[in-house]
Amino acid sequence: MIYLDHAAATPHNPEVLKLGRLVEPAFGNPSSIHRVGRKSRDLMDQSRYQSANVLECKIGEIIFTSGGTEAVFLGIVGSWLRNKKTIYTSPLVHACVWGALDFLEQHFEVTVKTLPLDAQGFIDVENIDDEILSEAGLIISEHGNSETGHLQPVAKMGKKIQKHKTDSGSNFPLFLVDSAASIVTEKTTLEYTKSDMFIVSGEKFGGLGGSGVLVRKESVNLAPIVPGSQEFGYRAGTENLPGIVTLGAALNVHDKTQEIQRLEFLELNRFIRNLFKENFPRIEITTPEANFLPHVFHFILPESYKGNAHMFVTQCDLEGVCISAGPACSSGSHEGSRVLKNLGCKPAESERGVRLSFGLQTTKEELTKAFKLFEKILCV
């Protein structure tokens, strides 16, 4: 099997799995005050310190969640319930962001508007003017797009937002960055992204699925979605101790190897891009040549292929090659990619996008074998 869908979920790091087994004896509820509960609490606190150290924030700014989707929902819905101002979002955000926005639009009188894009699909920061900044209570952007690989200028956006708040004496707009995809290769901190909140998801860098973090400045006031005594009052329910502990460990391991991974992924991306350019000159490569996530490569199937991306993915799977027709959470949709539509693709093209994404185990030999399979299926 050749696995090229690491942007959906990546194999668990062996060191992380070993730690997960060590957590098993700590079965207590971290809220219990007896010795078993205290042991569980100690393990969770260690993970919070680890996470805060890697993400360069205060321990009180770490909110453990059940994954990226919950973190996004808490950040978006929780902040809107406190200020009830207009929300501006990048048109290319992940489906979970649209889910939170759709929820607000269905149940509350919320106004959602999109930020302008330039011709290459990057947020046009110059056209985020004072009118937008004065109207917005929250601005949302992905750092890196998990589908096409576009790497957005979030730091530039964040600086502009911060300047507006300083000049106007306002606490708004808040700036939320989805860093779930970008943390694989890019620096992700409140200071680097110039954000008020950002999210990460454990399965993207070797942790367990069902674990995530919302990092939010202590000054940011959120309304709890499900109020409880956990996570500083922002969550309810017994914590997922194995997920939390392994997330902290995965972050720690990943932090030590991130730059090396980035260079390796860049080389793999150049390699597959050159194969496509030399042999599939008419196939449109959607991943930009500059400012992109190096572990993501995206292209549009040619018109000569009489099927959509889902059919192509299935054909590849039958031959032992695992790829994607987009983010895993929307892989069952046959309405076409919202991201591709917002990048200007025609409806038919939006159903023909294919993504390859690399991990630590990916090799040039695997990419060559996968490419030969693509040639066979596409008859190019």
What this model shows, in words?
The chain has 380 residues and is α/β, with parallel strands linked by helices. It folds into two domains: 2-8 and 258-378, Aspartate Aminotransferase, domain 1 (Alpha-Beta Complex); 14-254, Aspartate Aminotransferase, domain 2, CATH 3.40.640.10. Helices cover 42% and strands 13% of the residues. The chain contains twelve helices and twelve strands. The protein has helices at 14-23, 35-55, 68-83, 95-107, 130-135, 154-168, 190-193, 241-279, 309-318, 338-342, 347-350, 364-378; strands at 2-3, 62-65, 86-89, 112-114, 136-142, 174-178, 197-201, 212-216, 284-285, 296-300, 321-322, 353-357. The strands form three sheets. A seven-stranded mixed β-sheet has the order 2-8-7-6-5-3-4, sandwiched between helices. A three-stranded antiparallel β-sheet has the order 9-10-12. A two-stranded parallel sheet has the order 1-11. α7 links the parallel β6 and β7. α2 packs parallel to α8 (241-279), α3 packs parallel to α4 (95-107) and α8 (241-279) packs across α12 (364-378). The longest helix is centred in the last third of the chain and has 39 residues, at 241-279. The chain is globular, with a radius of gyration of 21 Å. The mean pLDDT is 93.
Short description:
This protein is α/β, with parallel strands linked by helices.
Which value, in Å, is the CA radius of gyration?
21 Å
Number of alpha- plus pi-helical segments? 12
Low-confidence stretches: none
- The arrangement of helices and strands along the chain is EHHEHEHEHEHEHEEHEEHEHHEH
Structural class call reads alpha/beta
